[in-house]
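A protein record pairs a chain with a discrete description of its three-dimensional fold. The following entry can be read in just this way.
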Amino acid sequence: MILILDDLQWAEALAIELVLGEILESIEKQNNAHLFLFIGLYRDDEVSIYHPLFAKINCLHESSNINTTDIQLSAFSKNDLVNMISNELKLPKRLVVELGDVVHKRTSGHILFAVELLNSMVRDSTIYFSMNRRQFHCRIDRLYSLKTDETVATFIISTLSTLNPDALKALQVLSCCGFHTDVAVLELLEESDISPCRGIRSSLQYLVDVGIVEIAGGLVAFAHDLIQQHVYENIDLSQRLDLHFNIALFLGLKTSMNSASIQAMGSIEDGFKNLYISESKTAEGPVLSERSLLSIATDHINHAGPDFILELSQRKLFATWNLIVGKEMSARSNFGCALHYYEQGILFIGNGVWIDDGVISNHQLCLDLYEGASNASLAMRNHKLVDYYTSVIFQNVWFERSIPAWIILMTSLESFGKHKEIVDKGIRLIRRLNIDVPPSPPGPRELV
């Protein structure tokens, strides 16, 4: 009799006791264990010393009447996969090395996943048989467009706990940067305290070799979004916010938009005009502009959020970053994205902070953010937001400086055909300019 049970790491204590307790115990008492073969499969990385299966396995090892054999199934190495593919396709190893390398990275050497991937490549003709040459061929151009399967991604996630501390820290920094990151950004972060002791670069090739990340076109990307999501969500929240804050601060200082520079420039508008293009060349060759760096830094600081920033001077600085990136997005006609940055800037500056302190003009900063949000809302035909943002401006600035906001509001009303409201607001606006407007139109002139 042969009994095979898979995935025992998920079995409950009662099921384990029933199978490995009662059944095997009865066979041992009857002294006919040689007539029974039991094969149990489990993931050893999911069975701790407190798992009920662990104790039961130890009991089997200690039994004098039951022979037990442990078989450790490890992943295939790249060379193992190359040998297997070479044997199956009847091709010299040198012709399948590149294929074996891609398969190994996409499957982490898990043989079941490797076979499944190879079969799918045969089905979609990435691997095909040439009748002319009478041998198998692989379409190399298709190899690097292959995506890591979700099942493989789940398997890779289960192996992350075995990474060394430096590789895990590098992976955490990468996950904070999103699904993919510019190589040039990582090169800059090498100079910071954010990177692991041995640097990010030293761990990067290892992470590529085991199929966790990929490098192509100047970008480092996760093999699957599930991997990035798992790494990111498993970072302690306070540590995650701290990482975002430190990355933002480090990259922001690489631009001319730090607080000292803004103070020297005298105004935010000057800072926007003087945000020059500077090349940050790395060993890999990519180039980053200051605007790109500031945009990346702003995204990181927005992930940290205004609640994480206690100093008012820093909150104003980060509000300024959002204003500049918002203007950049507006110039590109990406108004949805622009509105997001303007709103984030408003969250950083807070409500009611319209008084200047001599360093950064709070009044001008607030006005620019609210006007930017009003304009972006107008472009997106969201009159409710236009009405809200312009009303805040009307409450906090002199009449003369609110004229652009009045124009935005009138334009929004006109786009929705609200002509009566336009006339009513127009009359109020003219009267505020000290121009007399009668409450009703005069009657027809009498003929002389």
Remarks:
- The longest strand covers residues 2-5.
- The two ends are 124 Å apart (CA to CA).
- The chain is about 60% helix and 5% strand.
